[in-house]
Structure prediction request, 147 residues.
Amino acid sequence: MPDPQAQHASPEGRVEVTNDRDAITALGEQVLAAAERAGYSEASRFAVRLALEEAVVNAFRHGHKSLPKSETVGVEFEVDEQSIRLVVTDKGPGFKPEDVPDPTAEENLTKTSGRGLLLMRAYMSDVSHNQAGNQIRMTYNKPDSEC
Prediction:
């Protein structure tokens, strides 16, 4: 039986998400429902959800650490039959991605820093940041095996 939520999922959107687990989960479900309608496999949807949640959680944890808890993070998404594009923008001062320690380096194995970026880069086809470092843009290209 088709998922009724999936039938009404918009393939694109722009939302301001609050620092609330339920709000982040609902956003993920909205994007995944659109991805399911566009023919993405369960494995592809898992990859996109993981990257999206990591980006949003990092925005709150790092970008907004000095800001009021009420500040929102902007998320834009677009889903079509070839790719899924995500943009997550926080209101923080930004960072330099090249300054994040490599979590796979011997000296960093016990540190938690950098793992979210590593996962996003591993699962997504393309990951980039704006110059200020407070926006991450990610693209997931549908694998040929799903076309």
